[in-house]
Amino acid sequence: MQDFINEMDGVFPSVCSLDCPDQCGLLVHKKDGKIVKIDGDPAHPVTKGNICNKVRHMTERIYDEKRLQYPLKRVGKKGEGKFERISWEEAIETIHLRWVELIEKEGPEAILPYSFYGNMGKLNSEGLDRRFFHRLGTSRLARTICNSAGSTGYRYTMGGGFGTDPEETIDTKLFIFWGVNAVSTNMHQVALAQKARKNGAKIVVIDVHKNQTGRLADWFIPILPGTDSALALGLMHILFAENMVDESFLETYTVGSEELREHVKQYDPRTVSEICGVPVEDIYKLARMYGATSPSFIRIGNGMQHHDNGGMCIRTVACLPALTGQWSVKGGGAIKSNSSFLDHNSEALERPDLLEKETRIINMNLIGKALLEKENPIRSMFVYNCNPALVTPEVNKVRQGLAREDLFLVVHDLFLTETAMYADLVLPATSSFENEDFYTSYWHHYTQIQKPVIEAYGESKSNTDVFRILANAFGFEEECLYDSDVDLIRQALDYPENPHLDGLNYETLSEKQYVKATRKPLMETKLQTPSGKIELYSETLASVGFSPLPTYTPIVKDNELPFLFIPAPNHNFLNSTFSNNEKHIRLEKVPRLHLNSSDAEKLAIEDGDKVRVSNERGECELVAAVGENVLPGVVVSQGLWADLPGEKYFVNVLTPDREADMGGGATFFSGRVNVEKV
Ligand SMILES: Nc1nc2c(c(=O)[nH]1)N[C@H]1C(S)=C(S)[C@@H](COP(=O)(O)OP(=O)(O)OC[C@H]3O[C@@H](n4cnc5c(=O)[nH]c(N)nc54)[C@H](O)[C@@H]3O)O[C@H]1N2
Ligand SMILES: Nc1nc2c(c(=O)[nH]1)N[C@H]1C(S)=C(S)[C@@H](COP(=O)(O)OP(=O)(O)OC[C@H]3O[C@@H](n4cnc5c(=O)[nH]c(N)nc54)[C@H](O)[C@@H]3O)O[C@H]1N2
Ligand code: SF4
Ligand SMILES: [Mo]
Fold it and tell me: Mind listing the pLDDT tens digit for each residue in 586-605?
């Protein structure tokens, strides 16, 4: 194995571990054994040496004085943040004793692992953790907070996370960025669009907020939240009515086009315009532009699926490229996710067979409710790669649950996060630069490897190490609980079932650093839908109680308050990561609430005023940004801000913990609020 750790000076290839579609290739510069600079790797075929500002400043996060160095135990009250240094032995012994006692009294399902993708490395996000908790027989977590509704919806249409190869969009003539703030969240797709624009491509952005991405568009189309499926159906109405569909494509590669043709007659532009707030003439203009331009490409974002109707919405938008036959045009089609091209052997990695009997599954979006449940209560939670006290909906309820005196909470993280403040035990985690792991992007087509570049910081340990130590404390005898990281990578990549991996193994990946999925044009492969084709009509959907055809269903009106509230991510944080780093906070300045000038005028709110945003779930205080960037009746904030002293910045006190229509998804963007000047 190349050992970068022992090299004191040099420049080493690496991967960005953050939950971001771009998954950039990095170059880590070391001097005297420490990282001094992080750059993009020009050799990366897609990201080509460009990285975002967030990660350019990552070095400061790695060596931040606030970074955890040793295990801590709580000495004050829950949530008070008083801790004392302890040894790893004491920490592991405490967990072991508490869990043995709990398992004896209440059974292993009283324990809940709680994690997400704070580190996208496969081993550190879904490796030995899964094996260990399966062996222990704990409750399981449905990891639904991010793309669950949308991915489920997309699968009904396309059979899985299969889309356009982004590298081919260099030749695309029309880009539609739909519910995606790509300038902040997928910058290399924007770079490709900008290149194509030099050859005449047009960029259309459909969003509820004219943010950075909206501002770079040739045409920005503001839309009312949660109404995108109506717009998509209106476009289909016109495409069929004006004979702009590709009949031969529909016949060969889809099922249900005749039913769809009939079905969309009801979505005439006038009806649709009333639903989504887009003028009738703009609906015609967009449909005709889409019908006449090839290749055309839709980047389907996560934004519009964080709604009550998010699954059906993505399923609906995903039908559009089939109507104009774009899936058989190079550079045409859509990307919601491309993750299925890079599927690894998750069964081999996670070993669900270690689970003796089926255990309950708890939806992570409902963790507040679950923690306050009196029957079969969760008595202990082990949190890693995630910061639920900030990122989950109805976060006041979550915090109330985390503060329960009888909840034994262990948090493994690099920092004393808002969640760690409630912990009984805090364990220090290594950064990805300290571990070996492999990564797969959900946007581009490359699998990548991370070799450790620096020594573990202080006494911190990787996720895989922590679960090996815990397995040992329990005296578990299964050898697979102690497999080395390299063995885990080998097992995960051994997956002949995925033809796109084409024999990829540890050696080739180590040698090449970036390995592309092999792929035939999408329409030359059998899709993983029941029919093997694009399903405009889906029997499966009908069998689970939905309309088999794409439909518009309004979002839930949860109260009578005047504004729909969209608390989206921001440019300089990554979810809550970096919200505790000085430089990133300075770049972001303050959390703003964008509102329309007509609404502001009625409420006597001026730009820069502090405003209280509230509903029956809670309240927070943000700084008003008055203008025309949102439609009347809509307010938008950006960023998951940390608990800063004296401030009330957490937007998730306001978000509903209703489940989306599909996949148990989150509905962060479907809540209503009141706004008033403080
Ligand atoms: N800088 C930065 N990058 C990130 C992240 C971050 O926090 N910061 N987070 C990462 C993660 S985990 C994810 S999942 C992705 C998410 O990145 P995206 O896929 O871009 O999704 P969001 O940013 O959630 O929302 C995208 C846009 O949807 C809009 N929107 C909300 N509701 C609607 C609607 O009903 N209709 C339409 N048309 N638009 C709507 C919002 O205004 C926003 O501009 O980004 C990743 N990258
Ligand atoms: N209002 C609102 N809320 C949202 C969203 C939104 O758009 N609006 N977006 C939602 C989405 S899409 C997502 S994906 C979630 C994301 O929410 P989270 O998954 O909680 O993501 P982060 O806030 O980045 O927290 C990740 C944590 O993992 C830690 N970490 C990083 N690497 C490691 C490691 O190797 N080991 C361990 N043990 N810990 C590590 C980091 O330090 C950080 O504290 O937030 C959701 N919440
Ligand atoms: S956060 Fe995204 S854009 Fe920034 S370096 Fe990481 S992968 Fe690249
Ligand atoms: Mo996400």
Answer: 999 999 999 999 999 999 99
Which segments within 122-213 are labelled E, that is strand?
Answer: 140-142, 174-178, 202-207
- Mean pLDDT in residue range 454-467: 98
Q: Is 307 in the pocket of ligand 1 (CB under 6 A)?
A: yes
At residue 2, the pLDDT reads 57
Tell me which of 54, 183, 302 to substitute to probe ligand 1's pocket, judged by most ligand atoms within 8 Å of the beta carbon. Answer: 302
Helix (H, G, I), strand (E, B) or coil at 302: coil
Residue 79 has pLDDT above 80, yes or no: yes
Q: Is 668 in the pocket of ligand 2 (CB under 6 A)?
A: yes
For the entire predicted model, the pTM comes to: 0.98
Q: How confident is the model at residue 73 (pLDDT cuts 50, 70, 90)?
A: very high
What are the extents of the domains in the chain? Answer: 72-144+345-437+456-503, 164-336+522-543, 563-677
Q: Is the CB of 47 under 6 A from ligand 2?
A: no
Instruction: Note the pLDDT tens digit of each residue in 246-274.
Output: 999 999 999 999 999 999 999 999 999 99
| Pocket lining: 190 vs ligand 3, CB cutoff 6 Å | no
Is the model's pLDDT at 160 over the cut of 60? Answer: yes
CATH of range 164-336+522-543; options 3.40.190.10, 3.40.228.10, 1.10.10.10, 1.25.40.390:
3.40.228.10
* Ligand 4 is an ion; residues with CB less than 5 A from it: 146
Q: What span, in angstroms and rounded, lies between the C-alpha atoms of 613 and 608?
A: 14
Decide: 51 in ligand 3 pocket, CB within 6 A: yes
354-379 residue pLDDT tens: 999 999 999 999 999 999 999 999 99
Mean pLDDT, the chain, integer: 97
Comparing C-alpha atoms, which of 583, 577, 564, 563 is closest to residue 640?
577
Residues 608-625 have pLDDT tens digits of: 999 999 999 999 999 999
CA of 567 from ligand 1 middle (Å) equals 9
From CA 200, how far away is CA 216, in angstroms rounded? Answer: 15
Q: Say which CATH topology domain 563-677 has.
A: Barwin-like endoglucanases (2.40.40)
Ligand 3: residue whose CA is nearest its atom 7: 23
Which one-letter amino acid corresponds to residue 387?
Answer: N
Answer yes or no: is the C-beta of 397 below 6 A from any ligand 1 atom: no
Ligand 2 site, residue 64, Cβ cutoff 6 A: no
- The DSSP secondary-structure symbol of 660 reads P
Task: Print the SS3 string covering 15-51.
Answer: ECCCCCCCCCEEEEEEECCEEEEEEECCCCCCCCCCC
- CA nearest ligand 2 atom 40, residue: 385
